[in-house]
From TrEMBL:
Keyword line: ATP-binding, Cytoplasm, DNA synthesis, Kinase, Metal-binding, Nucleotide-binding, Transferase, Zinc
Binding site for ATP: G16, S17, M18, F19, S20, G21, K22, T23, D89, E90, V91, Q92
Positions bound to Zn(2+): C146, C149, C178, C181
One of the protein's GO biological processes: DNA biosynthetic process
Name used for this protein in its record: Thymidine kinase
Gene Ontology terms, MF aspect: ATP binding; thymidine kinase activity; zinc ion binding
Leader sequence segment: none
Alphabetical list of PANTHER family matching this protein: THYMIDINE KINASE, THYMIDINE KINASE, CYTOSOLIC
Localization, UniProt: Cytoplasm
Gene3D superfamilies with a match to the protein in the record: 3.30.60.20, P-loop containing nucleotide triphosphate hydrolases
Catalytic activity: thymidine + ATP = dTMP + ADP + H(+)
Organism of derivation: Corallococcus interemptor
């Protein structure tokens, strides 16, 4: 990765479809900061209770302790005076104010690592991710594997019937798909799969 600057703050955005490894990458970066004896606080929107109420949990069951918040501004009151790194998962659920909050933290000299969906189930930009990516110093886009054809996947196919933009869920509600296999409305799930190295 990059040679990070010293004595100034910055924003890192990890974006991509569901199952692309955003949360794993957030956890990896936070753990490395902890190995570097940095003071870290991790946050997630309270709405995300899929795997755990408080922990950030990846689809592969990696876990990290976090503070659930309803609004991005709550981050300020949870910081210790010596906090150096802030991690935020599912940042797309925190609304436009999260952009100003991340900017303020970076201006104060903190490293801010945000992970979130860049597209909704219809393939539309998922605000406030475009705004956050515009002001970030570093943007990493992760790709999953298309559940239909095996190509790199940058979209999240909804496989349950809802037209709401926000529907919290994991496998069973969404699957990753490439642009060729994705459709902008809820669709049939692809056949279930078991991972095996040998037949
Ligand atoms: N089709 C898929 N493509 C890639 N990873 C998948 C797929 N289905 C399940 N996974 C699992 O999802 C993990 C990534 O989970 P996670 O970091 O929580 O992703 P994200 O936060 O982007 O939704 C992978 O390491 C893998 O174990
Ligand atoms: C595409 C899409 C997703 N969501 C929800 C579903 C999950 O709860 C999260 C994404 O989690 P992940 O860590 O990226 O797997 O977002 C949604 O509400 N609306 C959508 O269009
Ligand atoms: Zn495909």
């Amino acid at each position: 990765m990059h040679q990070f600057p010293k004595d100034i703050g910055w924003i890192e955005v990890i974006c991509g479809s569901m199952f692309s490894g955003k949360t794993e990458e957030l956890i990896r970066r936070v753990k490395r900061a902890l190995y570097g004896r940095q003071k870290v606080r991790v946050f997630k929107p309270r709405i995300d209770t899929r795997y755990d109420d408080t922990q950030v949990v990846s689809h592969s069951q990696l876990k990290l302790t976090s503070l659930p918040i309803e609004r991005a501004e709550e981050i300020f009151r949870h910081l210790a005076p010596d906090t150096q790194v802030v991690g935020i998962d599912e940042v797309q659920f925190l609304g436009g104010e999260v952009v100003q909050v991340c900017e303020a933290l970076a201006q104060k000299g903190l490293r801010v690592i945000c992970a979130g969906l860049d597209q909704d189930y219809q393939g539309r930009p998922f605000e406030p991710m475009p705004q956050l990516m515009a002001v970030a110093e570093y943007v990493t886009k992760e790709l999953a594997i298309c559940a239909v054809c095996g190509n790199p996947a940058n979209r999240s196919q909804r496989i349950i019937g809802s037209g709401e933009r926000v529907v919290v869920g994991a496998a069973g509600a969404y699957e990753p798909r490439c642009r060729k296999c994705h459709v902008a409305e809820p669709a049939e799930a692809s056949p279930p799969q078991t991972l095996k190295l040998f037949d």
